[in-house]
């Protein structure tokens, strides 16, 4: 039976979303094509009808996950984002959490297309968080540097916490200390509001 174009696109989306979760949970090298396709409900042979290579899928899956993180930042200020991001709930939700924290180390060893996807995702998140602080338009170099610093600190906190045993008091201590430090480093809300009006 011939698959319609719409069904083929839906199948591809299902594979990308499944891969996005599995890669975040197990790493890029921790998931084989056969396992991935089985988890999505398809046969191994169908993979190469949809993707040129595993690297192509890795880039698409990373874009999917980074897009999910970006959508979570919509309409909230940086302090609220940090509270949600640097939390035990996020730490424990590897498969549905931030792609940068789950796969950033893996991405550094992947083809340029995968690394470019991460760079685009980082830029998108910085822009979204910057708009919350300064309003529409370009953000200042100082605000951009602050957002990059906060984002790097938040991602690093999640990575370090995940490196500890799940029941380790250190895992929670890393999150609490980092959340507090990042929140303190953010400009006060009044300053961000005044910058928007100025």
UniProtKB/TrEMBL annotation:
Highest taxon, organism lineage: Bacteria
SUPFAM superfamilies xrefs: Homeodomain-like (SSF46689), Tetracyclin repressor-like, C-terminal domain (SSF48498)
Keywords attached to this entry: DNA-binding, Transcription, Transcription regulation
HTH tetR-type domain residues: 9-69
DNA-binding region(s), chain positions: 32-51
Record-given protein name: TetR/AcrR family transcriptional regulator
């Amino acid at each position: 039976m011939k698959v319609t174009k719409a069904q083929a696109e839906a199948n591809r989306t299902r594979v990308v979303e499944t891969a996005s979760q599995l890669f975040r949970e197990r790493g890029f090298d921790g998931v084989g094509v056969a396992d991935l396709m089985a988890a999505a409900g398809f046969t191994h042979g169908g993979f190469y009808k949809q993707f040129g290579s595993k690297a192509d899928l890795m880039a698409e899956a990373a874009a999917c996950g980074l897009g999910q993180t970006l959508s979570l930042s919509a309409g909230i200020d940086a302090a609220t984002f940090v509270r949600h991001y640097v939390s035990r709930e996020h730490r424990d939700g590897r498969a549905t959490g931030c792609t940068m924290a789950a796969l950033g180390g893996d991405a550094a060893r992947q083809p340029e297309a995968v690394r470019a996807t991460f760079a685009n995702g980082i830029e998108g998140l910085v822009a979204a968080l910057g708009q919350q602080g300064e309003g529409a338009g370009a953000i200042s170099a100082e605000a951009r540097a602050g957002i990059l610093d906060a984002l790097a600190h938040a991602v690093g906190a999640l990575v370090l916490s995940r490196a500890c045993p799940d029941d380790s008091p250190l895992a929670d201590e890393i999150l609490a200390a980092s959340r507090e430090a990042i929140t303190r480093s953010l400009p006060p809300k009044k300053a961000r509001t005044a910058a928007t009006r100025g």
